[in-house]
Amino acid sequence: MQEQSLEEHLSELRQRVLISLAGTGAVALLVGVLLGGRIINLLTTAVLPEGTEVIAKTPTEYLYAWFLVVVLVSLYLSTPLVLHQLFRFIEPGLYPEEKRIFLRVVPISYLLFSAGIVVSVTLLLPAAASFLVSYTEPWAVPMLSVSSVVYFAVFIIAVTSLVFQTPVVVAFLLAGRLVSLEKLRSLRRYIYSIFFVLALLTAPSPPLVPALLVTLVLILLYEASLLLGSKLLR
Questions:
Q1: Do 179 and 93 touch, CB atoms closer than 8 A?
Q2: What are the residue ranges spanned by the domains of the chain?
Q3: What would the pLDDT profile of 159-217 be if each residue is shown by its tens digit?
Q4: Is the Cβ–Cβ distance between 75 and 25 less than 8 Å?
Q5: Residue 49: which of 117, 140, 142, 114 has the closest Cα?
Q6: pTM score, two decimals?
């Protein structure tokens, strides 16, 4: 492949950035029109315990919450396009092994992040909201502002999705020879016990079923870490 000049590199970079911005903007428009209000409604009805009152403390509070949801969801949905443009820009400078790692790890990382979102919305958010609201009820009437609900949901989703990146992190540690696959496999029983104890300590009441579900998710993440690491070591 013919080497590009600096001007050609900058021109291609500008083109890739414009495509990414245009795609993100188009996604934001669609999300704002079709999904913004529905996502907030999902967070305030499906996630919170039945009967919990949601209020807006200022005339603009719902608008701010809606804008935050639209921006974050648009960034998430447009990430594949942005990553594709990034790969096309850096591809000529990558070695074959680097291309292979990029094409394996990046899609897996995005899928794991997506799995974290699903687990958060379907399991962790309802459980956490139910526990916190039930803990508050003996002392005060729960009246949650729409912005606080959205911020709480964003926090839980972000933390969970980052935890779901554990297989990618462990895979790179294995690839860098910072830890051995045999060592991680030999520690399985101890790590699983730690997972269960941590899940039991943090699970809402009654704790057993939520703790078992969280433990199962953590075990699957750990096993995925070992599997991905073994693939990268080949």
A1: no
A2: 6-164, 172-234
A3: 888 888 888 888 777 777 777 778 888 888 888 888 788 777 765 555 566 667 777 88
A4: no
A5: 142
A6: 0.80
